[in-house]
Amino acid sequence: MKEVNLFLGKKPLIKNNNMPKFEKSTGFKMKGFKYPGKSPMKQKAKNIPGEDTDVIKTDKKGNEFSLAMYDMDSGINKGDTLFVSPSIPRSDGYVQGGDYKAEETEGSKKRKKGPKSYNLKEK
């Protein structure tokens, strides 16, 4: 293996302060393209349409919940639990149509596998 000498005379060829300056990122990169804002994987609040939820049921503790009926682009999977707050409009035992914000519950964040649970809130 050949040894490379980085010194010519008294001055080194590479100086630490001559590193190129990079612009500060304003978004995230995916496959080389820049996108403004946050990555979809790092967003805490996820969106779900009310039409994609099942019948509202009540658990043993008295909390009302619904299940997601489909896999969604926002990361919510079929069978995930959606806890319905009292302020969410309902019709005939279902969550009324419209877009809602779903935030993951603390207990669900600790779980690595299995279905997740979310709190539904109005946008």
Ordered list of secondary-structure elements with their pairings:
Blueprint lengths: L6 E2 L2 E2 L14 E4 L2 E4 L8 E5 L7 E2 L5 E4 L13 E4 L5 E2 L2 E2 L3 E6 L1 H5 L6 E6 L1
Parallel strand pairs: 8-12
Antiparallel strand pairs: 1-2, 3-4, 5-11, 6-7, 7-8, 9-10, 11-12
Strand order of the largest sheet: 5-11-12-8-7-6
Shape: elongated
Report the structural category. mainly beta
pLDDT below 50 for ≥5 consecutive residues: which ranges? none
Count of helices? 1
Task: Summarize the structure in words.
With 123 residues, this protein is mainly beta. It has a domain of 76 residues. It has one helix and twelve strands.
Keywords:
elongated, 1 helix, two-stranded antiparallel ribbon, mainly beta
In brief, what are we looking at here?
By secondary structure, the chain is mainly beta.
